[in-house]
């Protein structure tokens, strides 16, 4: 079986490329989320890196939380810690003084949509449908809700989270502001992302940091907010109803 990983590739152009992978369609267990968050922080403090590009390997961008791990969680502390994994990745992206550009080659579910929403600029292929399926398994997209609502607005967030079994197309996501650009194929996506990243790597660092701060103004309370949201998700997860739903979905 292929091995899960998160790796940081430093390019001499000033681009820090963070690539993550898990063999289960990039469904993220806790250890991989922790490594992803730490790698974003590592790239942010590296003086040789001017811009961060986030991407994944495989056909799916990110299938959200690992069902295997969700099923295995049996107490509140463990459950909060797991949901804080996604929260800490979002916070690392938000707090980075460097722009985080995200490349979405395929479908994204749940927490994967949260990673997209926490990005500063996103390009995708036309295969990159998105879905917030949490309500259908008895939880809800609470941890990622602040990022998604901020990016696409309350109306589009409500549509996604209530119609929890529907795949929303890449073009719908572009229309709502989740994606900035949608390309016909992955080669064009790669070329256009590299073009933008190389431009940004040559821009003034202080101006970039100040613009990043301006873009994220009003999110200063997110450390506390996302922890509170993780508590809600954890409490819902530990119910018998949710465990039964998770097991039936896994089967």
The CATH architecture is Alpha-Beta Complex
Name of the CATH superfamily? 2-enoyl-CoA Hydratase, Chain A, domain 1
The major beta sheet can be summarized as: 6 strands, mixed
Domain unit count: 1
- The helix tally amounts to 10
The whole-number mean of residue pLDDT values reads: 96
| Basic shape | globular
Estimated structural class: alpha/beta
If strands are numbered along the chain, what order do they take across the biggest sheet? 1-2-3-4-6-8
Low-confidence stretches: none
Helical content band: 40-55%
CATH topology: 2-enoyl-CoA Hydratase, Chain A, domain 1
The N- and C-terminal alpha carbons lie at a distance of 20 Å
- Tell me the name of the CATH class: Alpha Beta
Strand content: 5-15%
Calculate Rg over CA atoms.
Answer: 17 Å
Order of helices and strands: EEHEHHEEHEEHHEHHHH
